[in-house]
């Protein structure tokens, strides 16, 4: 028979939410740093980041790259 856990579902969802936010924040900072350095040097950085190819703004491109990166984690 399968064992069940006494951990409440709310606690599990809250921990998963914090983990997701932490991964998103770290990824956003890393990709933003890459994008800002490349932007200041005049490089075409959008082709480097997955999902950022068609986005016009730096923030939108970084956000798209982070979401694409995170979709590969699950």
List keywords for this structure.
single chain, 2 helices
Give an overview in words:
The protein is mainly alpha-helical and 74 residues long. It has helices at 9-41, 58-71.
The percentage helix is 55-70%
Count every beta strand, where a strand is a DSSP E run of 2 or more residues: 0
Count of spatially separate domains: 1
End-to-end gap: 28 Å
Biggest beta sheet attributes: none
Strand content: under 5%
Q: Sum up the overall morphology in one term.
A: elongated
Quick structural overview:
The protein is an all-alpha fold and 74 residues long.
Topology:
Elements (H helix, E strand, L loop, with lengths): L8 H33 L16 H14 L3
Helix pairs in contact: 1-2
């Amino acid at each position: 028979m399968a064992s069940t856990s006494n951990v409440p579902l709310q606690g599990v969802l809250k921990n998963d939410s914090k983990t997701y936010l932490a991964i998103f924040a770290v990824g956003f900072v890393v990709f933003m740093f890459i994008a800002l350095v490349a932007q200041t040097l005049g490089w075409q950085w959008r082709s480097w980041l997955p999902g950022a190819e068609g986005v016009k703004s730096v923030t939108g491109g970084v956000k798209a790259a982070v979401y694409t990166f995170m979709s590969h984690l699950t």
